[in-house]
Amino acid sequence: MDKNINTELILINISGQDHPGVTWALSEILARYDAGILDIGQADIHHTLSLGILIKTSSDVSGNIMKELLFKATELNVNIRFSPISVSEYEKWVGRQGKNRWIITLLGRRLTARQIASVSEEISRQGLNIDAIQRLTGRMPLGLEEQPKSKSCVEFSVRGNPGDVHEMQRRFMQLSQEDEFDISVQQDTLYRRCRRLICFDMDSTLIETEVIDELAERAGVGDKVRAITERAMRGEIDFCQSFTERVALLKGLDESVMQDIAQNLPITEGVDRMMQVLKRAGYKTAILSGGFTYFGNYLKQRFGFDYVYANELEIEDGKLTGRYVGDVVDGRRKAELLKLIAQVENVNIAQTIAVGDGANDLPMLGTAGLGIAFHAKPKVKATADQSISTIGLDGVLYFLGFKDSFIN
Fold this sequence. Notes:
Blueprint: E1 7-17, H1 22-32, E2 36-45, E3 48-58, H2 59-76, E4 78-85, H3 87-95, E5 101-108, H4 113-125, E6 129-135, E7 152-159, H5 165-179, E8 182-187, E9 197-200, H6 211-219, H7 222-233, H8 239-248, H9 256-263, H10 271-280, E10 284-292, H11 293-303, E11 307-316, E12 319-325, H12 331-344, E13 352-356, H13 362-367, E14 370-374, H14 378-383, E15 386-388, H15 395-399, H16 404-407
Parallel strand pairs: 9-10, 9-13, 10-11, 13-14, 14-15
Antiparallel strand pairs: 1-3, 1-4, 2-3, 5-7, 5-8, 6-7, 11-12
Helix pairs in contact: 1-2, 4-5, 6-7, 7-8
């Protein structure tokens, strides 16, 4: 840093009604005086410009620069303010750039001042500084923000080292439950910005039902199977044991029933939109399910998933035998498959994402670089670092940093 007595550092803040050419007109003046640009940032909120430029110049010309900028700002009908910055202040600012950066994403049907305030309070309490805030969802016409399918997402970029990362995470999850919004906290690493593989549970994640329950209804054993399913999803009994018991109850069911159920599966809100964006962005996608391959393959064909791993029902003479073929895809197997696909695709495990709702998804969520509990059971939501409970599955896109301008 040049500490010559003739060196001046000046922070220029411009605000007012935005219109084309403002940044060019002001930067052109700086260029004529060969001013150095040490930092620059611009935002536009409802056609209102906020532009900041930190310049390095000589005291011999700084007065002329400020005079010309002031005249130009008056001509452009914008406000301009000049603040001198000391060399020591600048060097402290430079020193902070080595600190960690975190991305905190708030998501819900609508976001309120209360939610923003509670999150920003915890950010401050942890000793973090907010560098930037951006809206990821599109502009919403008045009256539509209360619509059932509305979405609102804001992303905070914060810098620093939290006093207690686990306490910060716990507090954010508590706030999200109290104020009915979702929140994601991710360290802003190279891997976060280069995700490449995303794996989904199927039942109660990609579809709004448990297929085995649908099959059980057709077999007349719905109550028995549902009771076992609920106990398994809550983690009260071993998945393999519960799976064997439930499949046995399906003995004698006609194979044609599966086709009818597949064609009428209740698809989770946002799946189609999410898959279109993920494929456009080059993600590899997989279904890792404790359900059945028949239905996973149906979703693969419909939405373009790259991989499907699930359980194969044994069929003889057009009817279910009450048995399955091969090993059960349980929680442990899901985690193994995630790692296997990552190896096949040459993807670092830190670049992977897993999404699921049940206890048997926890190993997969814990293995992935980003694990997201989706409309999950209490035990799963309490364990996962990231959770979506307020909107559809396309909410995953916002946790990945996509903006509506790219999605739509």
